[in-house]
């Protein structure tokens, strides 16, 4: 089954990938012999990175077809459509697809989040297994049949998983935070749907979603591996020629309306600990404030044991085993989140401490020493060597999907060095505000306030 684990590591995982991606792909410029970008006859944008270290090829085909594109009343449709792509074509049933992948030593996976749905393929670069794997990938993308019996099975599994997930305090907090931050914007979605929406989905729904979203003009292809440019062009053509054409424009989301007031939500739960999230709307991919804000976050809560939040909450007060903050940039502005767990009896004290830290940080920003440490972290990370085509693929598929320049990372080190403390403080003051902060506390009830005297 096409796994959507990439989506379910959203939040902190997404933020971590931003940094991992930055330094891995900076090194990749020397790692690859060729780096080219073009459009196929079908209008699909392609990025190819030649990597000659191993006889391997990694391919990602991504569409703007993530959970934010679920039709109203059909939440969970995008995820199920992606998951059932490899469950049968007009020439292969589920078992035949698995057998062919095993016979060629290939691996297939899924890419899924709020913005994207897609399929990734890893294959040997030798002619015979590669040709067979590319042929299979092309059929899965262009000709899925979405067998009704498999759909029923996956719907049942999804509902069981959803019921379990909805009992977990961390999941409850994350869901409520998204709904509160994004209002009616599609980013309020968890991508999982509800028991009612999942139960109502039909094969016709999947077919219609595929025809609308899995089309050439809504796709990007990223190829990394031991190929020539001509071979890569042939592979891209083979993959995309069979895709539905449809309209020429990419799918667009509704304009985001950010939360403009502070809100607090308290959900009593019998969990052993309180789960606390503080959030606001952040920035989008390609935002000019990206570097100042990620450097600011590294100092505030993204730097693990070196961050302000960790030092204050864990080291000085012992209120939590871990605390972190992260930005999740997407096609539209994503979320900024501070998240931690603490004992129920100290939840409100820990929340107050965290809010005061955040308030002080927004007001005054970091100091010069903190900025220099954060910059050294990013620049120093560039020294790491690339040892995985998969990391290259992850990076360049993001570049491809969001129309960022092919050389986006080339000057990353110098651009980090050029960020000033004033730029960081100014970005914080413009883009972060306590007046737009949502707080979610799952676990304890709020203690009653007793009158003095």
Overview of the structural elements:
The protein has 2 domains: 5-240, Metalloenzyme, LuxS/M16 peptidase-like (Cytochrome Bc1 Complex, Chain A, domain 1); 263-443, Cytochrome Bc1 Complex, Chain A, domain 1, CATH 3.30.830.10. It is 45% helix and 17% strand. The protein has helices at 5-8, 11-31, 77-83, 94-104, 127-142, 148-165, 169-182, 195-200, 203-213, 229-240, 290-302, 308-316, 347-364, 368-381, 389-401, 412-418, 421-431, and strands at residues 32-39, 45-51, 56-63, 107-112, 117-124, 219-225, 263-268, 273-281, 323-327, 335-343, 438-443. The strands form 2 sheets. Strands 1-2-6-3-5-4 form a 6-stranded mixed beta sheet, sandwiched between helices. Strands 7-11-8-10-9 form a 5-stranded mixed beta sheet, sandwiched between helices. α2 (11-31) packs across α15.
């Amino acid at each position: 089954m096409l796994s959507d684990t990439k989506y379910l590591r959203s939040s902190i995982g997404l933020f971590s990938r931003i940094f991992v991606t930055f330094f891995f792909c900076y090194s990749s410029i020397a790692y690859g012999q060729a780096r080219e970008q073009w459009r196929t006859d079908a209008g699909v944008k392609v990025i190819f990175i030649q990597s000659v270290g191993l006889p391997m090829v990694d391919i990602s085909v991504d569409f703007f077809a993530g959970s934010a594109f679920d039709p109203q009343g059909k939440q969970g449709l995008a995820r199920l459509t992606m998951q059932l792509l490899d469950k049968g074509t007009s020439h292969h049933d589920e078992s035949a697809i698995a057998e062919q992948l095993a016979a060629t030593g290939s691996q297939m996976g899924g890419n899924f989040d709020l913005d994207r749905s897609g399929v990734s393929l890893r294959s040997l670069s030798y002619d015979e297994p590669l040709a067979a794997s590319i042929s299979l990938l092309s059929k899965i993308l262009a000709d899925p049949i979405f067998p009704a019996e498999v759909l029923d099975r996956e719907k049942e599994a999804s509902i069981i998983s959803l019921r379990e997930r909805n009992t977990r305090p961390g999941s409850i907090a994350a869901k409520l935070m998204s709904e509160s931050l994004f209002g009616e914007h599609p980013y309020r979605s968890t991508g999982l749907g509800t028991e009612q929406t999942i139960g109502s989905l039909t094969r016709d729904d999947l077919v219609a979603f595929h025809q609308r979203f899995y089309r050439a003009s809504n796709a990007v292809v990223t190829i990394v591996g031991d190929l020539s440019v001509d071979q890569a062009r042939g592979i891209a053509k083979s993959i995309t020629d069979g895709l539905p054409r449809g309209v020429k424009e990419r799918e667009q989301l509704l304009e985001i309306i950010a939360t403009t007031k502070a809100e607090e939500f308290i959900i009593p739960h019998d969990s052993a600990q309180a789960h606390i999230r503080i959030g606001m709307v952040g920035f989008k991919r390609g935002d000019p404030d990206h570097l100042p804000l990620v450097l600011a976050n590294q100092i505030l809560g993204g730097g693990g044991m070196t961050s302000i939040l960790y030092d204050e909450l864990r080291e000085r007060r012992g209120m939590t085993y871990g605390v972190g903050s992260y930005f999740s940039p997407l096609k539209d502005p994503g979320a900024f989140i501070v998240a931690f767990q603490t004992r129920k009896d100290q939840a409100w004290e820990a929340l107050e401490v965290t809010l005061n830290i955040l308030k002080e940080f927004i007001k005054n920003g970091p100091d010069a020493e903190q900025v220099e440490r954060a910059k050294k972290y990013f620049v120093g990370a560039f020294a790491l060597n690339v040892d995985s085509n998969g990391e290259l693929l992850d990076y360049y598929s993001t570049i491809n999907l969001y129309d960022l320049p092919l050389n986006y990372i080339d000057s990353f080190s110098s651009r980090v060095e050029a960020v000033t403390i004033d730029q960081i403080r100014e970005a914080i003051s413009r883009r972060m505000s306590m007046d737009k902060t949502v707080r979610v506390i799952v676990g304890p009830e709020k203690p009653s306030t007793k009158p003095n005297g």
